[in-house]
Structures are given as structure tokens and as C-alpha cells.
């Protein structure tokens, strides 16, 4: 462990918190060695440019994590790093006392989105702790969360805990791009009892007080899809225009699709979310959320939620045009025009079903549709398992008593979808709290309050033990 005393001191000064972000300092950290290790590992991981393409250092992140796990008590043979193309994935197993029990899987990823140093205030791959924040690409998504889980598992071993079922921690190497390793891992761990995705869920801090408002766990996610629309035409000289023009045809279809709203939908999970989250919204939005939860055909509620970019994706499938290309010369009629429609599909629907609906909306048989989706698969919501809900609720109460806990559905995709597709329940349950205004995942100057470290370790110790008994 590098400079553990210095790191522990940094945590004590930088957090000033116990039992949740925003609390006053009440004493020394309860797990100082694990907390220091989590921050140290996160800084080392951030310094490795784990971005797809030339110079991808995801394999080095995997080696870093393996080294920490082996030093923390895992057998070398139980921690495997497997190269795949320019990346790699890691699977580590802590054997339980009952070989017949299905394993608990803790899931994360090591890769990050590209970051150009010239665009950032600080170099994205030079970790910096400043003003109580850890800065760097991956500080939020999700190198700190990954090292928190690693440090917590090592702490459990240090304290002498003996799991009944195997605990498997795994990290994919291309979650931000093709998700090839994500699918491989899910197949290898298809016998899991439950997957705890530490890259999903999380808490919201009050913008004014920085105290926890509420915490959500993720039980479902919308399916990512891309559909390519193409119109072809013989073309000709621009001085002799024709009624049928490839660009015009495509444009008209895109307008129809843009004006179309898929049927609003509600699930048990999203109903629970709307009822609870309504309390923390402005009066108009909150009233609409309650009304929609009571009646998903309520036109006024639908209109209000549809008009809000933060809520439209929560009430059904959305599809938007994201790219367009057409024509081949300034003085020629277009021979070809193409566009991409990106969809986020409500759980329970398959991609061909949505593409067929888009064809109907486009209302032009001359337009061809092609599914060009990569790295995504449709999945249903995970069941609202009582043992999981009890474990994460208990874990959250140990660090933030009184903070509301309720489910949510993610609009983006994660590794969890591959496990759900195989019938394995998967849940996002990160303990990290952040202000909405400071969530810079995938964006510039990514950062996370290091005050999360102490409570997160305590939370993971509780949850990992509860779910592996």
C-alpha cells in the first residue's frame, strides 16, 4: 500500500463525514485501511488510459486490480485476466463454504470514455484530489466505485468473514463501446444467483446543502438500439428537378418519426419510482408523476412528463434522429440519403417490434430500415426480490439513516443487460452520492466527492455479507 498514512489523512480531512455525505465529522474513519486503499487504487487506475483503440491500457488496470486482490488474500489462480482484442476482462472468485450455492456476482467495468486533455481544466488521466473531490476520467464512471468494492472485499477477508456462497467480482473491459467482454462474462457466470452491478443506481445530494436527498437502486434499463434509414434514387442533373427526391423523402419521414410518441407505459418498478420521486420534484412535475403512476393514460400527466427531457424517457420508448447524410454533389440530384434513428426501448419490447413500428410511422415504402445496433440486447426488468431489497436498504440505513430508498429504471445501457438476458437477476446499487449538477460522467472535468469513500466501504461490507450468507 502506497503512502497509506498520507492517504488516510487526506480522507479524514477531505471528507469530514461519517454515516453519509454531508454529515459533520464525528470521529476517525471506521475502516481506515480499506478507505485508504480504495482511494489509492482509484488514483492508480485513473492514471491508466483505459480507452478503446491504440494504447488501450485496460489490461494494465486489470493487472492492477489483480495485484490488489491477490495481496488481499485471493489465491492467484482464482483471479484471472483474459485478453480480448485490445482490452481484457477480470474475474476473481472467493470460494464460499457451500459449493452448491449459486454465487453472488459483483459487476463493474475498467474502461472509460475518451477524454482529450486539451479540453479539460486538468489532465483527465492525472488524478487529483482537490477541494474534497477526486478529479479524473473514471472518477465517477466507474474506477472509484470499482476500487471501493475491491477494498471492501479485502476488508471482509481481513476481518475474518466466511461467505456461504462464492463471491465473484468481475470487471469487463469494453462496457463503454462494444460490450464484447460484457457478454462473455455473463455467459461464464450464467449460474449466478444475483448480479450486483456497482455501475448503476446511486444517491442524489441536495444542491444547496450537499446532504443526501434520496437513493435509488436500478432494477431495469432501457434497451439501446440504432436503426439506419436509407432512400435511394437514380438521381440526375440538379437543373432538371423531379418530384421524387431522396433527401426530401427521408426528411419527411424523419419529421413524422420526430413527431411520434410511443405508447406511454408503466411497470411495477417505474410506478414505485414515480410515487417516491414525485416528492423531490417541482410541484407540476411531481403532480404529473403521481397522476401517471395512478393512471398511465392521463393525458395531462403525459403531456407534462413528455415536455420534460428528464422524465420523457421514463414513461416509454423514445426514438430520435441522431445522424444524417445525403447527396453526392452540389449540382446533382441525390442518389442516396441515410439517417440513423437512436432508440431507448422500454423493457418488454424487442428491437424488431420497434423497427416495425417506425416503418409504419415513416409511411414510405421507398425507405429501407436496417438494424445496425451493436453491443446491446433487449431485456425485461429484474424481479423486485425481497432479499436484495432488504440487504441494500439495511446497508443504506447503516450510512444514511432516514434517507428514502426506492427503485429506478436507467435510460442507458450497462453490463447488467447481458445477465438479465440469461435470466439472472441484476441490480444497480452503487452507494455513491453526487449532486445532479456535478455529475460529469462521460463529460469534461469528471469528479466525485471523496466523502463517499468512508460510507461506501461500510455499505459494501454490509451488503456483500448479507447477500453471500
UniProtKB/TrEMBL annotation:
Domain Peptidase M20 dimerisation per the UniProt entry, residue ranges: 220-366
UniProt protein name: M20/M25/M40 family metallo-hydrolase
Highest taxon in the source lineage: Bacteria
Annotated PANTHER family: N-FATTY-ACYL-AMINO ACID SYNTHASE/HYDROLASE PM20D1 (PTHR45962), N-FATTY-ACYL-AMINO ACID SYNTHASE_HYDROLASE PM20D1 (PTHR45962:SF1)
Keyword annotations of the record: Hydrolase, Metal-binding, Protease, Zinc
Keyword check for Protease: yes
SUPFAM superfamilies xrefs: Bacterial exopeptidase dimerisation domain, Zn-dependent exopeptidases
Family per record: Belongs to the peptidase M20A family.
Amino acid at each position: 500500500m502506497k503512502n497509506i498514512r498520507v492517504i488516510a489523512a487526506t480522507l479524514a480531512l477531505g471528507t469530514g463525514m461519517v454515516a453519509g455525505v454531508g454529515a459533520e465529522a464525528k470521529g476517525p474513519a471506521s475502516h481506515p485501511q480499506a478507505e485508504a486503499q480504495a482511494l489509492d487504487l482509484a488514483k492508480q487506475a485513473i492514471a491508466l488510459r483505459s480507452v478503446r483503440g491504440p494504447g488501450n491500457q485496460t489490461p494494465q488496470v486489470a493487472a492492477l486490480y489483480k495485484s490488489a486482490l491477490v495481496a488481499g488474500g485471493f489465491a492467484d489462480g482464482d483471479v484471472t485476466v483474459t485478453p480480448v482484442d485490445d482490452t481484457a476482462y477480470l474475474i476473481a472468485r472467493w470460494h464460499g463454504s457451500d459449493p452448491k450455492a449459486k454465487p453472488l456476482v459483483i459487476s463493474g467495468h475498467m474502461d472509460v470514455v475518451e477524454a482529450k486533455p486539451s479540453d479539460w481544466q486538468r489532465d483527465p488521466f492525472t488524478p487529483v484530489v482537490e477541494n474534497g473531490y477526486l478529479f479524473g476520467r473514471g472518477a465517477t464512471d466507474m474506477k472509484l466505485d470499482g476500487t471501493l468494492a475491491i477494498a471492501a472485499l479485502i476488508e471482509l477477508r481481513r476481518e475474518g468473514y466466511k461467505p456461504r456462497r462464492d463471491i465473484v467480482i468481475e470487471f469487463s473491459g469494453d462496457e463503454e463501446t462494444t460490450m464484447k467482454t460484457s457478454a462473455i462474462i455473463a455467459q461464464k457466470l450464467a449460474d449466478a444467483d444475483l448480479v450486483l452491478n456497482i455501475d448503476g443506481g446511486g444517491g442524489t445530494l441536495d444542491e444547496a446543502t450537499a446532504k443526501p436527498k434520496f437513493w435509488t437502486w436500478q432494477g431495469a434499463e432501457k434497451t439501446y438500439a440504432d436503426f439506419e434509414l436509407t432512400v435511394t434514387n437514380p438521381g440526375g442533373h440538379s437543373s432538371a428537378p423531379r418530384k421524387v427526391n431522396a433527401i426530401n423523402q427521408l426528411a419527411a419521414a424523419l419529421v413524422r418519426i420526430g413527431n411520434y410518441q410511443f405508447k406511454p407505459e408503466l411497470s411495477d418498478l417505474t410506478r414505485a419510482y414515480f410515487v417516491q420521486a414525485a416528492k423531490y420534484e417541482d410541484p407540476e412535475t411531481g403532480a404529473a408523476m403521481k397522476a401517471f403512476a395512478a393512471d398511465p393514460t392521463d393525458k395531462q400527466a403525459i403531456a407534462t412528463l413528455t415536455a420534460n427531457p428528464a422524465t420523457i424517457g421514463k414513461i416509454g420508448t423514445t426514438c430520435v434522429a441522431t445522424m444524417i447524410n445525403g447527396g453526392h454533389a452540389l449540382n446533382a440530384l441525390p442518389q442516396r440519403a441515410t439517417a440513423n434513428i437512436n432508440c431507448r426501448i422500454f423493457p418488454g419490447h424487442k428491437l424488431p417490434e420497434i423497427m416495425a413500428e417506425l416503418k409504419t410511422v415513416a409511411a414510405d415504402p421507398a425507405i429501407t430500415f436496417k438494424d445496425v445496433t451493436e453491443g446491446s440486447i433487449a431485456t425485461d426488468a429484474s424481479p423486485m426480490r425481497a432479499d436484495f431489497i432488504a440487504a441494500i436498504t439495511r446497508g443504506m440505513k447503516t450510512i444514511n439513516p432516514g434517507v428514502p430508498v426506492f427503485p429506478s429504471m436507467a435510460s442507458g445501457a450497462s453490463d447488467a443487460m447481458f445477465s438479465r438476458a440469461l435470466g439472472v437477476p441484476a441490480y444497480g446499487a452503487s452507494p455513491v452520492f453526487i449532486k445532479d449538477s456535478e455529475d460529469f460522467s462521460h463529460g469534461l472535468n469528471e469528479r466525485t466527492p471523496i466523502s463517499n469513500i468512508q460510507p461506501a466501504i461500510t455499505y459494501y461490507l454490509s451488503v456483500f455479507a448479507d447477500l453471500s450468507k
